[in-house]
Write a structure and sequence with these properties.
184 residues; mainly alpha; two-stranded parallel ribbon; rod-shaped
Length: 184
C-alpha cells in the first residue's frame, strides 16, 4: 500500500517524471491565416495583376462583342436582299464566330483562374516554409490556425512574425497567364 501511495504522489507532484520521453511534451502556437493573406505584399500584388489581366480580357471581349453586333446588324439588313441559301450560310458563319468568341472567353477565364491558383500556391508554399522555420526557431511541434482555436494566449500567436518574414521573403509573385497554351 505504501508503494502505491508513493507512486501516486510521485505522479501527482512530478507529472514530467511520468513522461520522461520528450515526445509527449507539446509546444504549440497559432497563426491567423486570414490576417496573413490580408497583409501579404505578394497577395496584394497578385490581386493587382489579376485585375489588370481581367480588365484586358474584358476589353478584348467588348471589342469582339461590338464587332459581332455590327455583323448581326448587317445580317438583319441582308435578310430580305440575299437568297435564302446565301443568308443561311451567313447566319451559320455568324453563329460559328459567336461560338468561337464564347469559347475563347471560357479559355481565357480558365487560364486566368489557373494562373491565379498557381500564384497563390507559391504564396502558400512560402508561408508554410516560414511557419516551419519559426517552428524550428521556437521549438514548436504544432502550429494551428487561430480560427480553429477557442482561446490562446497572445504570446502563442506567431502571426505577426509570419507576416513580417513572408513579406521580407516574397514581395512579388509572377502571375503566369498564357491563354494560348491553355486552349485545346
Amino acid at each position: 500500500m505504501h508503494l502505491i501511495r508513493s507512486i501516486f504522489l510521485l505522479i501527482m507532484f512530478f507529472p514530467a517524471a511520468a513522461f520522461a520521453d520528450d515526445k509527449f511534451i507539446t509546444k504549440a502556437a497559432v497563426v491567423d491565416v486570414e490576417s496573413i493573406l490580408e497583409h501579404s505584399i505578394a497577395i496584394a500584388q497578385i490581386k493587382k495583376s489579376i485585375t489588370i489581366i481581367s480588365d484586358r480580357i474584358q476589353e478584348e471581349m467588348s471589342v469582339k462583342e461590338s464587332d459581332l453586333k455590327i455583323i448581326e446588324a448587317d445580317l438583319i439588313q441582308k435578310r430580305g436582299v440575299s437568297s435564302e441559301e446565301e443568308f443561311n450560310n451567313m447566319v451559320a458563319d455568324f453563329n460559328r464566330k459567336v461560338s468561337a468568341t464564347q469559347q475563347e472567353m471560357q479559355y481565357k477565364k480558365s487560364a486566368l483562374e489557373q494562373a491565379h491558383s498557381a500564384a497563390l500556391a507559391e504564396v502558400y508554399q512560402n508561408t508554410t516554409e516560414v511557419i516551419s522555420e519559426l517552428s524550428k526557431k521556437y521549438g514548436l511541434n504544432i502550429v494551428l490556425p487561430s480560427a480553429q482555436v477557442l482561446f490562446v494566449e497572445n504570446d502563442l500567436n506567431i502571426t505577426l512574425e509570419v507576416i513580417t518574414s513572408l513579406n521580407e521573403r516574397l514581395k512579388t509573385v509572377e502571375v503566369k497567364y498564357n491563354a494560348e497554351s491553355y486552349q485545346q
